[in-house]
Design a protein that fits this description.
This protein is elongated. The chain folds into two domains: about 170 residues, Rossmann fold, CATH 3.40.50.1950; about 210 residues, 3-Layer(aba) Sandwich (Rossmann fold), CATH 3.40.50.10300. The protein contains 14 helices and 19 strands. Helix 1 crosses helix 9, helix 4 packs across helix 6 and helix 10 crosses helix 14. By secondary structure, it is an alpha/beta fold. The strands form five sheets. Strands 12-11-8-13-16-17-18-19 form an eight-stranded mixed sheet, sandwiched between helices. Strand 16, helix 13 and strand 17 form a beta-alpha-beta unit. The relative contact order is 0.09. The structure holds cytidine-5'-triphosphate. Cytidine-5'-triphosphate binds next to helix 12 and strand 16.
């Protein structure tokens, strides 16, 4: 924590790549969410973004070398006092210098003195990212406990596309918060695993304009996909309707609308998966008939609409799962006269037959359309773990811990 107050003290390292301009948005997000941020750009980062921008937005002085403000020994003190170091963008050169313990500027010196979690968000051309030298440097940093994010794919500087884009600043901020909540939340323990996650709420069309839907924002499913990808898994995210969320970096996103489309996409994706998480809120019913034209109000009472029951996708995935595949379900419960949230959760776990069930209490501003989540994680082996209130990424990290233990 910073000396002056209890806000977490974050060092934001910025290396010299074109994505340095995005570090300004990350800085803004970190300061606005209550972090005290000291920016450490490299000299080349200052070719892309002016020192004044970093100083104004962080409210703290900005130096690149170790010879400014010498009496306060910043090259030792800043790293020692930090709760988290985030380097975004981390260029190929910065990763190389960090991996080899160089200390030729204030940022790399601080990386050597920091004992807190370190998060690198790489950005570089695909060839550089895939070069054996960079692969080795990334492996070395990960082996030492640093979190090196998988970059996003997409448009790079100029016309090329491929892996190497800086992950969205919102996503980096999300993982930064996660590491402050739980420093060991992102081990690289899903490397070599394939996982499938569903997210969002399905929509069942009544006519070309209207649908039956639900309030799921998709945030919990996206957090599960993001955390799995950053723990090394190959991830397919089957996404029904969500709030406006960016695609998580290094995740394959398949978009669907209705429950039946979701089922089809899940059945296709899970064949060779090691783990499957059904975080989507699936509509239990759909209109039997989807009107071709917009249904008119008419004059009298509305005509009743017949509903059909949708397939129970989770139950089907459990029935058809391959040996060793871990299946995780979600249960959003309010509790009622017949029992509380946990009671309904236990009954649902038994009914669905999955290996793990995340039980959330919903209603009254809980779980839906909010940033934080809490609940219980129930295991088919009888285990019951309370999931304390925290970010959806934190809950995701606990779920993946339990999955890894069962793989
Ligand atoms: N689910 C599913 N297919 C459905 C309904 C739900 O795969 N048609 C999955 C959800 O993705 C979730 C779990 O089943 O992982 C529990 O969803 P929930 O809506 O809580 O349960 P229901 O089976 O619909 O039971 P109920 O509405 O009676 O609580």
């Amino acid at each position: 924590m910073s000396a002056a107050d209890s806000s977490p003290s974050v060092l934001l390292g910025v290396a010299g790549g074109i994505a340095a301009y995005k570090s300004v948005e990350l800085l803004r997000r970190l300061t606005e969410t209550g972090h005290s941020v000291r920016v450490l750009p490299t000299a080349s980062a200052c070719e892309f973004v002016g020192v004044a921008t970093f100083e104004a937005l962080s409210g703290q002085p900005v130096h690149t070398g170790v010879f400014a403000d010498v009496p306060s020994v910043p090259h030792v003190r800043l790293g020692q006092q930090a709760d988290l170091v985030v380097v975004a963008p981390a260029t190929a050169d910065l990763l190389a210098r960090a991996a080899h313990g160089r200390a030729d500027d204030l940022l790399t010196a601080s990386l050597l003195t920091a004992r807190c979690p370190v998060l690198f968000a790489p950005a570089m051309h695909t060839e550089m990212w895939e070069h054996p030298a960079t692969r080795d440097n990334v492996a070395l940093l990960r082996a030492r406990g640093a979190v090196v994010m998988e970059p996003a794919s997409g448009r790079l500087t100029g016309r090329d596309t491929g892996p190497g884009r800086l992950p969205d600043p919102a996503e980096i901020a999300d993982l930064a918060r996660l590491l402050l909540e739980r420093p060991d939340a992102l081990p690289h323990d899903l490397h070599g695993r394939r996982v499938v996650v569903s997210a969002g709420g399905t929509r069942e069309a009544l006519d070309p304009v209207r649908y039956l839907g639900n309030r799921s924002s998709g945030r919990q499913g996206y957090a599960l996909a993001r955390v799995a990808a950053q723990r090394g898994a190959a991830v397919t995210l089957v996404s029904a309707h969500t709030a406006e969320l960016g695609d998580p970096a290094a995740v394959d996103v398949v978009r669907v609308g209705s429950a039946r489309e979701l089922r089809e996409a899940m059945v296709a994706a899970v064949a060779d998966a090691d783990a499957v998480v059904m975080a989507a809120a699936v509509a239990d019913f759909r209109p039997v008939v989807r009107a071709d034209d917009k249904i008119k109000k008419g004059s009298g009472a509305p005509a009743p609409r017949a509903l059909a029951v949708n397939p129970d996708i989770l139950a089907e995935l459990v029935r058809s799962r391959r040996a060793g595949q871990v299946v995780v379900g979600f249960a959003a419960e309010t509790g009622d006269a017949t029992g509380d949230v946990l009671h309904h959760g236990r009954a649902k776990l038994a009914r669905k037959g999955c290996d793990l069930l995340v039980v959330n209490a919903v209603g009254d501003g809980q779980a839906f359309e909010v940033a934080d989540n809490a609940g219980w994680l129930l295991g088919a082996d009888g285990s019951e773990t309370e999931l304390m209130t925290g970010s959806k990424a934190l809950l995701a990290s606990r779920v993946w811990d339990a999955v890894v233990a069962r793989l």
